[in-house]
Specification:
It is a single chain. The longest helix has 16 residues. 69% of the residues lie in helices and 0% in strands. By secondary structure, it is mainly alpha-helical. The protein folds into three domains: 91 residues; 101 residues; 114 residues, no CATH class. Helix 1 runs antiparallel to helix 2, helix 3 packs parallel to helix 5 and helix 16 runs parallel beside helix 20. The chain starts with 9 loop residues before the first helix and ends with a helix.
């Protein structure tokens, strides 16, 4: 088949590459013509001139069926050849993508992160392996599924690269617990966008309030004391350190977070708060709770839980 390319200059071989791609992309191509075009395409994919291989990549990227060796060859070529192909092609299986993400270049990963067809497993692989540029491209791609595991991976890996998380905060399709976790990590400007986008100022639905509370407690459960203070201050400044959240923290025995939260709201030291919770009389406990905004109808619930914790000597 390579004989068909002998004697042709670069521009002519690039033109042949375009015609071969058109044959392979057409649904009406006969089996014999397809086989001949595939063989010629594999020869073109080995051409020493990048311009020729680029022409093939662009012409062949919409083909629904390609020999796997040919597709892999294009995927691992230089960026100018691989990127246009990887951004569009549908010839790879999920297993192929798992392998490719490990071996292709950073720029090629960025192109994959732009894909309109993005299965969950591919989004997760990009989140796990890609650098911050890949991650930013991924979260900006509205076709990329922001599942809980994808978001958690991004939150963990790029916690110190706030610009990536700020971009994620612009997504309109995040799960409730992801929104809460983001609120604790992103910039003030991104928090404002989240509040507007997800109407965080109006958690009137019991289901939404419960989901928010569970997400916050899950997030703070593994934090250090220093991080707990920062998280509580953020929640308090956003008006979301509510009595309902405090009661849930008490019921969930998130006592370190409860002490920090009560300290942040009341302005009293953590040691003072702990002393009140551990041994103070009912009037003193009620005084602290009222100071942080707990209404009288909720006091009995707090007292019951505090007595249960005292009985177990958990404070």
């Amino acid at each position: 088949m390579q004989d068909q390319l002998v004697g042709l200059d670069d521009a002519a071989r690039a033109l042949v590459a375009g015609r071969v791609g058109a044959v392979l992309s057409a649904e009406t191509t006969s089996p014999a013509d397809r086989l001949a075009a595939e063989m010629l395409a594999q020869d073109i994919a080995r051409d020493v001139v990048e311009q020729v291989r680029c022409a093939l990549s662009n012409a062949i990227r919409n083909a629904h069926h390609l020999p796997r060796p040919l597709a892999m060859m294009l995927a691992h070529d230089v960026d100018s050849v691989a990127c246009p192909f990887l951004e569009v092609t549908e010839v790879f299986s999920e297993a192929d993508w798992q392998s490719l993400i490990l071996t292709i270049s950073r720029n090629a990963r960025v192109s994959v992160a732009r894909r309109e067809n993005m299965p969950d497993s591919l989004a997760l692989s990009l989140a796990e392996i890609g650098d911050s540029v890949v991650a930013e491209t991924l979260v900006e791609n509205v076709a990329a599924p922001m599942t809980a595991v994808v978001c958690d991976t991004l939150l963990q890996r790029f916690e110190s690269e706030i610009w990536v998380l700020d971009k994620m905060a612009e997504r309109p399709d995040l799960l409730a617990d992801v929104v809460i976790k983001l609120t604790l990590k992103v910039s003030a400007a991104a928090r404002e966008k989240l509040a507007v986008l997800y109407q965080q100022e109006d958690f009137t639905s019991p289901v939404a309030a419960e989901a928010e509370s569970a997400a916050v407690l899950q997030t703070v459960g593994s934090m250090s004391r220093k991080d707990l203070v920062a998280a509580a201050e953020t929640l308090h400044s956003d008006g979301r350190l509510t009595p309902f959240l405090l009661l849930d923290a008490l019921r969930d025995r998130q006592l370190a977070f409860l002490e920090v939260a009560l300290s942040v709201i009341s302005g009293r030291s953590i040691e003072h708060v702990r002393s009140v919770l551990e041994r103070a009389d009912t009037a003193t406990v009620d005084g602290l709770l009222c100071k942080v905004g707990v209404l009288k109808p909720m006091l009995d619930d707090f007292r019951t839980e505090i007595e249960a914790v005292r009985a177990c000597k958990k404070f």
